[in-house]
Amino acid sequence: MSTGSFLDSTRTKLDPLRLAGPRWAGFAARIIAGMLWLSNTDWKRPPDFGRPNRGLWVFTNHGIENAVFGPFKWFLQEIVVPNFKLFGWITLAVEVSLAALLLAGLWTRFAGLLGVGMSISITLSVLNTPGEYNWAYYLMIATHLAIIGLGAGPWSVDSLILKIRSGDRDQIRRSIKAGRIGLGALLGFVGGYIAYQTRERSFSLSVSGTKYFASISTGNQALRGTVLLGLTLIAVGIAVAGLAGTRAAKPLGVALVVAAVLCTASYGTTLNVFGGAASSSAIVLVPAAFLIVSARATSAGAKRSPVRRTS
């Protein structure tokens, strides 16, 4: 066999891997970026967001004290700091949304663009701060640029949406079945982990917000909560496994969106009955997106089905 023939044969054998590579690279990039935003929601804690000497307040002031770009310093000093509480809520909402969109693989390229903007904003705040590892921020920007180019990849809500638009019912059914099993099992695992880690911790709504969160912390930034939160996530996992792709999926998905908003809005207060953090909201939004889109698949199929008349 000639060298040319051998190389052609090798290329042919590697074609499936070459074609699948970018899709799986997109999947890996968005999951890593999603976990990054998920784990960093913890220290943007309302109602003070770290003011006067910790958390978001400190990092915001780094952009003033160790200015990277003059106009950005002015923006922080004149716009952000006087309206810091509003800025804190916007930052928390954006990062929760980023984590949820990237982990779910929904509107992935938009999430990548939003991630680039947030990464640049963070870079302009802390790049000149002593002790910071500058390359971490360049890599954040590069990762989100890669997500824009590569897309969501497999195991994503965007992928399910494309299949719904194509009208291939077999592929739609397979995707929903895979999502039911995978997402249901993952939520069950996460809920079980939280419930197990917090089984011996006190739970009281009578203590202050700070002590309340300290008493139920699992010690992991991305997973905080109570036994009640853990059991709730297990229940959500069971519901996803049983209801995804049915007409009941949409109202359940909408209810989860409302629950996530309430969880974020009550974060850091004793009103947060479930003890969840903002990261809990992002986790809940992932099955919510899948349920709502899976219900769309059901309604689309119903519209395409011909109505049979009987004499």
Overview of the molecule:
With 311 residues, the chain is mainly α. It is built from twelve helices and no strands. The protein has helices at residues 3-39, 55-65, 70-80, 84-104, 108-126, 134-150, 157-166, 169-197, 209-216, 227-243, 249-265, 278-304. The protein starts with a helix and ends in a 7-residue tail after the last helix. Mean pLDDT is 82; it is low at 202-224 and 304-311.
Briefly characterize the structure.
This protein is mostly helical and 311 residues long.
Helix-strand pattern: HHHHHHHHHHHH
Tally of contiguous helical segments: 12
β-sheet strand percentage: under 5%
Rough shape?
globular
Low-confidence stretches: 202-224, 304-311
First and last CA, distance = 69 Å
Measured on Cα atoms, how large is the radius of gyration? 23 Å
Measured as a percent range, the helix fraction is over 70%
Structural class: mainly alpha
**Total beta-strand segments:** 0
What topology emerges from the helices and strands here?
Elements: H1 3-39, H2 55-65, H3 70-80, H4 84-104, H5 108-126, H6 134-150, H7 157-166, H8 169-197, H9 209-216, H10 227-243, H11 249-265, H12 278-304
Describe the structure using short key phrases:
single chain; 311 residues; mainly alpha; globular
